[in-house]
Amino acid sequence: MLLSHNFDVTPNIAPVLSHEEFAQVFSRGLGDRPSCKTRLIEHPHWIVEILFDGDQFSPKQIGEFCAQALADKRSSQDVSSSEILVLGGLKTTPPTSSSPDALQTGDWGVDVVETLVVETFLQGISWETTIASKPVAEIFKVAFKDLRS
């Protein structure tokens, strides 16, 4: 599973995370699950790779763990006015790059989004239209709307 970061808020709402800080969020957040391994990768779009035991966790569960990890990070920074969205899709087409850190066929590409309003962001990317023709098993969506809880 490869993660990207879509930072759709201004820095006065939430501090910008460097790639290293973003990777650390998931290293710490998944650290109590020994079957999950994370690493920072070198790619123009993808930032973090998460390897996990598919017999133990579903991709959506990993997405939920990721949303919680980022919510915990933002809560520790006293950020409560943004919302977190984790959108995952299974790559079913051939890779577009030969880079070892590029998304490969059969991998999950996951956009971790920080936004002011989840619904507005989803409308802006035409989420419902995008997923309309995709099998349910090849996509997932996790939303955290109240970072104070």
Features:
single chain, 149 residues, alpha+beta, 6-stranded mixed sheet, 4 helices, globular
- Which series of helices and strands comes N to C? EHEEHEEHHE
Low confidence ranges: none
Radius of gyration: 15 Å
Look at the helices and sheets and give the structural class. Answer: alpha+beta
Number of domains: 1
Termini Cα gap: 27 Å
Query: Helicity, in percent?
Result: 25-40%
So what's the overall shape? globular
Mean pLDDT comes to 93
Strand content: 15-25%
If helices are DSSP runs of H or I spanning 4 or more residues, what is the number of helices? 4
Structure description:
With 149 residues, the chain is of the alpha+beta class. It has one domain. The protein is built from 4 helices and 6 strands, in the order βαββαββααβ. A hairpin with a 7-residue loop joins strand 2 and strand 3.
